[in-house]
């Protein structure tokens, strides 16, 4: 009983921002800023940098460090996570410095346009709808929405999405796609059970109030491994989406550096080691 309570309590710091939709803005840790400049100033204390080389160009990189394991903060408030490490390795390989700043994700268009940042690295999926204001790097990871259920005797018959009919599925109210998707999977929109945060959505499953959780595969899988939870992933037929870095439309110089660095670390094994470490 104590173990279950402990596992539930650790969720809030880990999955507060996860909502099953990487293009949806996660819940914020800080009060909203009124301008791009205010946003960067407000977050100035939450920064990370690679080992700087005075002979290399320094790029300003923004990330909203509230979506583990991709980007979040350590105990001292410094950005850490898969994308933070990935960016540092890309920079090292392509020979440029990076200064990574925690900033509200909703400011990404304004801050890129105003030149506050050279790059945004915050779980962005490649999307045609943003092609008028942004260019995307080569993809560095694929993600997919799935349903996770506890791997136990009760759920033994759930082997594919057809086994979700009539089941209650927890969702985060921050996910725009979840109500419709889960309603179709379960047979009724009333079986999509919203929660104020993804933490509370997961808590519903552990408490036996719902049968599963709709979310992103890599985040759910990472949590399950880190905390020894016995779960299984149900493929619901959603297409995989590609994650990439984002630069201002037309900034080919920075885009070239990012793609060059990605190609190098994919060839030398550094990328594979990072993926293995986190996922």
TrEMBL record:
Stored InterPro entries: SBP_3_CS, Solute-binding_3/MltF_N
Start and end residues of each Solute-binding protein family 3/N-terminal domain: 58-279
Region feature (Disordered): 22-54
Subcellular location: Cell envelope
Any Pfam family hit: SBP_bac_3
Domain of life: Bacteria
Signal among keywords: yes
Key word Signal present: yes
Biased composition (Low complexity): 35-54
Leader sequence segment: 1-17
Gene Ontology CC entries for this record: cell envelope
UniProt keyword annotations, A-Z: Signal
Family: Belongs to the bacterial solute-binding protein 3 family.
Protein name as catalogued: Polar amino acid transport system substrate-binding protein
Provenance organism: Alysiella filiformis DSM 16848
């Amino acid at each position: 009983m104590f173990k279950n309570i402990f596992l539930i309590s650790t969720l809030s710091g880990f999955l507060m921002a996860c909502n099953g939709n990487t293009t949806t803005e996660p819940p914020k840790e800080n009060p909203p800023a009124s301008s791009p400049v205010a946003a960067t100033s407000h977050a100035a204390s939450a920064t990370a940098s690679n080992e700087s080389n005075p002979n290399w160009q320094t790029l300003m990189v923004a990330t909203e460090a509230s979506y583990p394991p991709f980007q979040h903060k350590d105990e001292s408030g410094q950005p850490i996570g898969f994308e933070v490490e990935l960016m540092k390795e890309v920079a090292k390989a392509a020979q440029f410095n990076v200064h990574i700043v925690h900033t509200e994700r909703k400011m990404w268009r304004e801050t890129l346009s105003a030149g506050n940042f050279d790059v945004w690295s915050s779980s962005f999926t490649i999307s045609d709808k943003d092609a008028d204001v942004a260019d995307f790097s080569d993809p560095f990871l694929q993600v997919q929405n799935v349903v996770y259920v506890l791997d136990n005797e009760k759920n033994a018959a759930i082997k594919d999405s057809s086994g979700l009919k009539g089941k209650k599925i927890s969702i985060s109210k921050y996910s725009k796609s979840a109500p419709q998707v889960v309603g179709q999977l379960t047979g009724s929109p009333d079986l999509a059970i919203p929660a104020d945060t993804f933490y509370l959505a997961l808590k519903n499953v552990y408490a036996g109030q719902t049968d599963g959780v709709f979310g992103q595969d890599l985040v759910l899988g990472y949590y399950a491994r880190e905390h020894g939870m016995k779960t299984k992933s149900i493929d619901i037929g959603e297409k995989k989406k590609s994650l990439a870095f984002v630069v201002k439309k037309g900034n080919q110089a920075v885009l070239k550096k990012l793609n060059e660095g990605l190609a190098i670390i994919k060839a030398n094994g550094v990328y594979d080691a990072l993926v293995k470490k986190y996922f």
